[in-house]
Design goal:
The two termini are 21 Å apart. A hairpin with a 2-residue loop joins strand 13 and strand 14. The chain folds into 3 domains: 12-79, Uridine Diphospho-n-acetylenolpyruvylglucosamine Reductase, domain 2 (2-Layer Sandwich); 85-210, Uridine Diphospho-n-acetylenolpyruvylglucosamine Reductase, domain 3 (2-Layer Sandwich); 214-293, Alpha-Beta Complex (Uridine Diphospho-n-acetylenolpyruvylglucosamine Reductase, domain 1). With 294 residues, it is α+β, with helices and mostly antiparallel strands. The protein has helices spanning 40-52, 103-112, 128-133, 194-211, 230-236, 265-283, and strands at residues 12-18, 30-36, 57-60, 66-67, 73-79, 87-91, 94-98, 115-116, 137-138, 141-142, 147-153, 159-163, 169-170, 173-174, 181-188, 190-191, 243-244, 247-249, 257-259, 292-293. The chain binds flavin-adenine dinucleotide. The site of flavin-adenine dinucleotide has 31 residues, from strand 3, helix 3, strand 9 and strand 15.
């Protein structure tokens, strides 16, 4: 398998690239090809190739919600980066945002333009594509509530617009099919003084600082079960500080696993098994994964 590069391709392609570097967990094996496209034409070029050759592929944003297995990923990973992250104001209160835009960049843009409404996302290290795919949220709100339309590249490589009436966002999930690529979204924002946005962002970041571990992680491992906080349940069953090899349940937040250095995906999976087992035994509740395992 080799990518038939043509002169129009502007991005970068790495063969047998270790994916650990590209995830916030800093864990995981190699992929046959990692593609960093520079333009949307690059994305189409690679998608056409993988479809034609029936090569498996995955889409990555900032890699902040992914655990890559130690044996790696076969086929191609297309990482949608910041260069595919333009923001365009299309009317007073609507923005068109490409999927590679970082959450932090979007919040800066909003502040500069006296717009707001999305401050609750401050501190989430993902981009718009990954956040919309998994309906990221915090402090009782989630991004899906603000999405009016999504432009996707579907499995037949057609560009499709999914209107609000066809979009379903649930807790940490959406109805965007795995295999579709989110190209851009229309987001509803509101007029808001810069200072107000700034103060809200500071407030949320301060709240986060108490719970977010400093070591590499992928954020929350499990979704909160209905009426419970997964972190609370895991704390109650004594998971904080439990260690397997080089990974450990964080002392700051019992629903987060940190990589102490050189951690392995197998160790994370074993810790996940223990966390689930303890919560099942003590509370009779099944914890559902929030992170995606590749
Ligand atoms: C310290 C820390 C704190 C966090 N806090 C929060 C929080 O408060 N709330 C929260 O909800 N999450 C949180 N997360 C998890 C994570 O940051 C979010 O889920 C984030 O929005 C994922 O975006 P990403 O770009 O990193 O996606 P990735 O992890 O790269 O991908 C996640 C999924 O989205 C898919 N995907 C990515 N881009 C596209 C695209 N363009 N088209 C189609 N599919 C795509 C991928 O295939 C994958 O299945 C946190 C993570 C960390 C490390």
């Amino acid at each position: 398998m080799s990518i038939p590069i043509n002169s129009k391709f502007k991005g970068k392609i790495f063969k047998d690239e270790c994916l650990a570097t590209y995830t916030t967990f800093k864990i995981g094996g190699k992929v046959d090809y990692l593609v960093l496209p520079s333009t949307w034409d690059d994305v189409f070029f690679v998608l056409e190739w993988v479809k034609r050759e029936k090569i498996p592929f995955k889409i990555m944003g900032q890699g902040s919600n992914i655990l890559v297995s130690d044996e790696g990923v076969s086929g191609v990973v297309i990482k949608i980066n910041r260069n595919l992250g333009k923001i365009k104001r299309i009317s007073e209160e609507f923005l068109e945002v490409e999927s590679g835009c970082l959450i932090s960049e979007l919040l800066s843009f909003l502040m500069k333009n006296n717009l707001g409404g999305l401050e609750f996302l401050a501190g989430i290290p993902g981009n718009i594509g990954g956040s919309v795919f998994g309906n990221s949220g915090a402090f009782g709100s989630s991004i899906g509530e603000f999405i009016e339309k999504i432009e996707i590249i579907d499995e037949n490589l057609n560009i499709k617009n999914l209107e609000k009436s066809n979009l379903f966002f649930n807790y940490r999930s959406s109805n965007i099919k795995v295999g579709s690529v989110i190209k851009s979204v229309i987001i509803k924002v509101k007029k808001q003084e810069k200072d107000k946005s700034y103060n809200l962002i500071l407030k949320y970041l301060k709240e986060r600082q108490r719970k977010i571990p400093k070591l590499p992680s992928a954020g929350s491992i499990f979704k909160n079960p209905p009426n419970y906080s997964a972190g609370y349940l895991l704390d109650k069953v004594g998971m904080k500080g439990v260690r397997v090899g080089n990974v450990m349940v964080s002392y700051e937040h019992a629903n987060t696993i940190v990589n102490l250095g050189g951690g392995k995906a197998e160790e994370v999976k074993e810790l996940i098994r223990i966390m689930r087992e303890r919560v099942k035994n003590y509370f009779g509740l099944d914890l559902e994964l929030e992170i995606k395992i590749w």
